[in-house]
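name: query_chain
kind: protein
chains: 1
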Amino acid sequence: MKASLNWIKEFVSVSASPQEIADRLSLAGLEIEGLKEQGKGLEKVVTATLLKVDKHPNADRLTLCEVRTGDQVHQIVCGAKNHKAGDRVALALPGAKLPNGMEIQNSVIRKVASAGMLCSEKELGFAAESEGILILPPEVPEDLPLAEALGLDDVILEVNVTPNRGDCLSMRGLAREVAAAFQTELLAPPPAAAKTGNFKTAAEVKLEAADLCPRYTCQILKGVKVGPSPQKVQRRLEACGIRAINNVVDATNYVMLETGQPLHAFDLKEIRGGQVQIRRAKAGEKLKTLDEKERSLAEGDLVIADAERILALAGVMGGQGSGVTEKTGDLLLESAHFSPSAVRKAAKREALQTESSYRFERGVDPNACLAALNRLAALIVEWAGGEAASDAIDRYPQPIQARDILLRQKTLTRLLGLNLPVAELLPALSRIGLEGKAEGTDLRFKVATARSDLTREVDLVEEVARLYGYNRIPTTFPALGLDQFPPFREHPLDGLRNLLRDWGFTEILNYSFTSPPWLARFGFQAEDEVQLLNPISEEMSVLRPSLLPQMVQTLQQNQFKGNSDLRLFEIRPVYRPQADATPPFREEWRLCLGLAGQRQPLHFLNEIEEVSLLDLKDYLKLLVGSAGEGTLEEKPGQSPNFHPKRRLALSWRREGKSFDLGELGELHPALAAELDFKGPVALAEISLDLFLTESKIPVKFQQVSPFPSVWRDLNLIVDESVTHGSLAALIRANGGPWMRQAIFFDLYRGKPLEEGKKAMTFRIEYGSQERTLTDDEVNQAREQLTAKLKELSGAELR
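structure:
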């Protein structure tokens, strides 16, 4: 977002330099990406008066002008046609270097001397395109620096506003942040009283979609005269990235930039039936928007309509049939609050992001609609004449209230590590619209509706951190004990990654999106795969159906940069379309391996050998074997991307079931030559369903019993040959339904035990989900277990 520093200073009094203001805002979370001095390049451009305009003696398309700046008269050759004697113009004197890079010198044009240049808006950097030279208002004084005459001694800030800070998409919103950063107060907004006539806003407003439009306000203006807006206004809008159009449209944009509230002006005579309907679009309805495109609206889109047709796509763009033209005399002004999600969906579907939709998507203050409407009416009457209705219509069936949030001292201390008394924070937080009152050591806040991003206590903690200064918060480390970490359970795919890393492979990560031309090299057609509706670029427009193309691309890029001996792997999902299903694609996890270069590092003891298909085959045998018992089966491969005589298809057979794994092979010689590979490239791509399904550890859940446990120790004497593992397995198998766990906690050898004997002690937990067990029941279960252990392993109680 572009913001005028002079405009911001109309709402806050601060004497700091532009760079200091930018630094403070950046520290508060509003990154300033750049500063531009608006008057730079206009140092030798002054206001002047055209005294005389004659035809050039040697050129039909040029004029010869006499231009006055104070006591001096300059002869200028000009190619424009829109000027006449008496006009106030912008004159670039010799030595000027304009914003577009043009250097002005004394010159001779068609044998006639020219001592400067009359400038257009494009040459001055005011507009991307312009016709003719800039004609200034007659009230602009003569012989003043142009920047001073037009109020261009300004600095434009490039502000990166995060998506949650819709309240900062305005000059007043940024001024609020400046006031908080410099601990000063906001200045009162400009007066918003328009000249009113003896009439009311005679319109029938039907709010039929209050869930998507909680508030709708409008007001009628009569007798306006559409024309250009004041030069200062035009310059401000253009400096902030908005093209000046006319005094009515410019006023809507000006108030939007000033307050953050998007507004719209309708031509009153184009509203049929005197009705304004805020409703959902019906199936098949269309709208020709102001950009002259006819759009087929989706059923349910929020629209503004009259008794016969749609007038605007709410919060996004108005319709061409009801827009302001030179013939417009009466207006209906609109200021509303639209649902962010409704505006976002419509704007994205139509690929139509506007200044209005940009703000509505990020949240606009619902309780500022009427104030912005009054400000708009006042500016239009000031710039275009006319009178405003004596009232405004305000449809607000369920007013949105300020949120109530408690900020606790202990939360602030725990999250920031700061021992700040919360009462001391009240002045700073009040500057950003938070009204607070103390409740003991805590604070309870009424959060202004402009701050839609503040919904939880932790959000207030972040505000404190911003205002206090992230750079002032000391670094502290939490004290953690080992008992605070949950038991770790490794995911099956993590085991594969660890194995491959142990074998010297390096993991790579590619985007899930890829390029259609690159896929086509490997036999995939983009139209047959899963395509993105709104891709970042053509290079990332298709969800990848295979890991192989990107593995080859990674190997190629590494070899181009001199990294030739490679062992790479990628474990990621691929996506294949599936018809008549939701979602319309399926995700499948795969492993891709890629080998290139030498088999072993360069060393005088190592033979120089290139990688081959057999290297990959050995790795895959070990890898698949880690899934459990089974047999790896081979058959001829079919992939056209591999060498016809050096490719294999693999499957895994276990317990009568066969799992198709995938294929491996050496890259086809023609493709390898096309991609300029030096030496063979061995590749494999296998499905990981075997590891994610057949080898998955089952997870069992059991509700915690509300009844107490009973513990019994079991001290057993066994032969030295009896292992802990075998005895523990017998206890688990024969412990009975009430045994929950058995813990081995003591081992003893020596007297008075006989030679070849040892004592092993287990602590056993008994319990029931239904009731408390009696001592007799537990003792009986223990005796039955002891008898069974003696029968099976010869164990006796000590």
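note: The radius of gyration is 39 Å.
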